[in-house]
C-alpha cells in the first residue's frame, strides 16, 4: 500500500452496499494488512446496530478503542473481523478504528445474518 493515506473500498452485501474510506492514520498496520487482503468475501454477522464479518487478516490491537460512533468502521482483533457500526452500538470488546462509512447508513439496517459480503477496492 505504500504511503497512501486514504483508501476507498466498497462493501457489498446481498441486500445493501456501502462505501468506506479507510484512513491509514487511525491504525496504519491494520489498514495496510486489510488493503493487502482485498478483495475478499465472507458471511455477515450482527451485533446490536453493527454488522461484522471475518477477514483473512490476523493483527493485534492497534490504538484500541472501547467506544465508537455511528459510521465508524473498525477491525476487531479477537474475531479477525471487519466491523461497520451503523447505529447506537458499542463494540463487544476494544476495536482498531480504521475508517468511516462515506455513504448513507440506512441501507445497512437491511443486512441479515448469514448474508454473503464482498469487500473490493473502489
Automatic annotation (TrEMBL):
Domain Cyclophilin TM1367-like: 10-119
Pfam families per the UniProt record, alphabetical: Cyclophil_like
Name of this protein: Cyclophilin TM1367-like domain-containing protein
Organism: Thermoproteota archaeon
